[in-house]
Amino acid sequence: NAGVTQTPKFHILKIGQSMTLQCTQDMNHNYMYWYRQDPGMGLKLIYYSVGAGITDKGEVPNGYNVSRSTTEDFPLRLELAAPSQTSVYFCASSYRALDEQYFGPGTRLTVT
Amino acid sequence: GENVEQHPSTLSVQEGDSAVIKCTYSDSASNYFPWYKQELGKRPQLIIDIRSNVGEKKDQRIAVTLNKTAKHFSLHITETQPEDSAVYFCAASKAGGTSYGKLTFGQGTILTVHP
Question: Shortest CB distance from A101 goes to which of B42, B51, B103?
Fold first, then answer.
């Protein structure tokens, strides 16, 4: 099992550009989450999904969009990137709501 | 929504000493409290968790205690080793309603264990 994988590992984006961060899990987990981690800070939930076709907003959803067409994939879309979106983005998954969340390796994104 | 406060923000100990990190939460309905360890440049990984129906849980050198009345929970690491150096995050969550297991994280504690 690869677990949770994310691409790309690093990316530099210009202000106003858009991009998609990819997340895939091979553990047949129902729940998937996107977090952002700013320097020296904890993780904040952006969006989450409880199954294919079902997504909802987390604590900091503005400027982002998600979709979940399959159990395995949960891409995060950044539209009109802003410097405030410079962060490390982690995708995570769990089998049930209160189970251990398994994190991907993260994507370090710089918007400049 | 839920708010989780974590203290201290940094903690420095000598190898072999104990380390204690404390968290308080605001939502009395929260019933799941995990602790994650994040080494520099790595992903967070679960080290221990506790649910509201127990007051304490141990796993070798790590223990977590929960006081539901006071709405706080703590991580205890005994006989610390240099490889325990990392950032530790507490979190809180609840089942039911629209929660769906959403975790609210504390701000993190940087633990440094000096040899």
Answer: B103
Question: Counting Cβ atoms within 10 Å, is residue B82 exposed (0-12), middle (13-18) or buried (19+)?
Answer: exposed
CA distance A49 to A58: 10
Q: What is the pLDDT along chain A (112 residues), one digit of tens a residue?
A: 789 999 999 999 999 999 999 999 999 999 999 999 998 788 999 999 999 999 999 999 999 999 999 999 999 999 999 999 999 999 999 998 889 999 999 999 999 9
A42/B107 touch (CB, cutoff 8 Å), yes or no: yes
Q: Buried b vs exposed e over B62-74: b needs ≥16 C-beta within 10 Å?
A: bbbbbeeeebbbb
Mutation for B interface: A38, A43, A56, A88, most B CBs within 10 A: A43
